[in-house]
Amino acid sequence: MAPLLLTLGRGVVTGLGKRPSAEADLPRGRLTRSAVRIEPARLAAYARVCGYPPGGGLPGGRLPLTYPHILGFPLAARLMAARAFPLPLLGLVHTSVTITSGGVLTAGDRPDLAVHATGLRPHRRGTEVTVVTSASLDGAVVWEDHSTYLARHHVPAQEDASPPPAPGPGFADLPVVARWPLPASLGRQHARVSGDYNPIHLSALTARPLGFRRAIVHGMWSVARCAAQFPTARGISARFHHPVLLPSTIEFAATPTTFTLRTPPSGPLHVTGHVTP
Q: pLDDT band at residue 24, thresholds of 50, 70 and 90?
C-alpha cells in the first residue's frame, strides 16, 4: 500500500497548476502489470466492507465482480498522477462505471492488468475522461472496466456540453429490498481496502476544501455493495447522480436486472444501474 500512497501524493503535486480542458492531449499507450497476485487477506477485508460473502468467494470460486478494479487501481492512479495527464488527480469524482466479465477470475489466478485513458470531453460541470482497465489470462481479456471521472471546474454556459444524466424510465418504482446505514467512517474503511485515499471520501475536514460539506462515499463502494446482491452477474453498469454523504442511510431497490440507491424517504437518487445475469 505504501507505493500507492506515494503515487497519490505525487498526484497532488503534479496536479498543481493544471488547467483541465477537453482540448488537451491524453497520454498515449498503456500501463501494465503482469501476473498480479491476489492477496487472500486483502480480498477478505474488501468483502467485509462491501457486503460480499466472507472471504470474497462467490459461486464457482469467482472473484467479486468489482474486485479487479481494486487490483488495477494502482495502475490507474499512476496514470492519473502523471504530469502528462491533463486532469488533477486530487478531487476527481467517479461519474459512471461499466464492468463486463467474459470469463472467470478466481483468487488463485494471476491476471495481467492494463490501463489506458480515452474519451476526454467537456462536461456540464468541468471535464470528464474515461479510464479503461482490463484483466487478461493467457492473452485473452476476461474482465474490463470503463470508468468515467470528472474534474470539476467552472464551465462557461456556452461550453456546457452534457446535460444532467436522466435516470431513465422505471427506476422510480423499483421495490425496496434493503436499507443500509452508512457510518461516517465508511470512506476510510473503503480507502484501506481499495487504496483510494481521495480526500473527498475521508472526512468532512478534508472534503470541504474540495466542494463537499461532508465526506462522500466512494462510487466503487456503491457499485460493489449493489453487485454483491447479484452474485451470479456477469456485468454491471452504474451511473452516479448525487453523492452519498457520510454518515447517512440509503435504500437499495432492485429487480433481477436493475437497481437504485436512494436516500429515504424522499431524498435524492444517488445511483442507477443495470446488471447482466
A: confident
All three cell numbers of 273, joined, read: 444501474
The pLDDT of residue 164 is: 55
**3-state SS of 203-242?**
CHHHHHHHCCCCCECCHHHHHHHHHCCCCCCCEEEEEECC
Query: For residue 221, what are the CA distances in angstroms to 28, 42, 194, 272?
Result: 29, 15, 9, 14
Residue 94, CB-side half-sphere exposure with 13 Å CA sphere: 30
Nine-digit cell string for 220: 466503487
Nearest to 95 by CA among 132, 148, 131: 148
CA atoms within 13 A on the CB side of 8: 17
Largest CA distance in the chain: 52
Of 15 and 106, the one with more pLDDT: 106
For residue 274, give the C-alpha cell: 443495470
Helix or strand holding residue 14 (H, E): helix 2-14
3-state secondary structure of 194: helix
State whether residue 270 is helix, strand or coil.
strand
Residue linked to cell 454556459: 157
Q: Which residue has the cell 492531449?
A: 25
Measured distance CA(93)–CA(75) in Å, rounded: 17
Q: How many CB atoms lie within 10 A of CB 81?
A: 21
Specify whether the CB–CB gap between 12 and 82 falls below 8 A: no
Residue 45 dihedral angles phi and psi, to the nearest 5°: -65, -40
* pLDDT tens-digit series, residues 173-190: 899 999 999 999 999 999
The whole-angstrom separation of Cα 8 and Cα 153 is 20
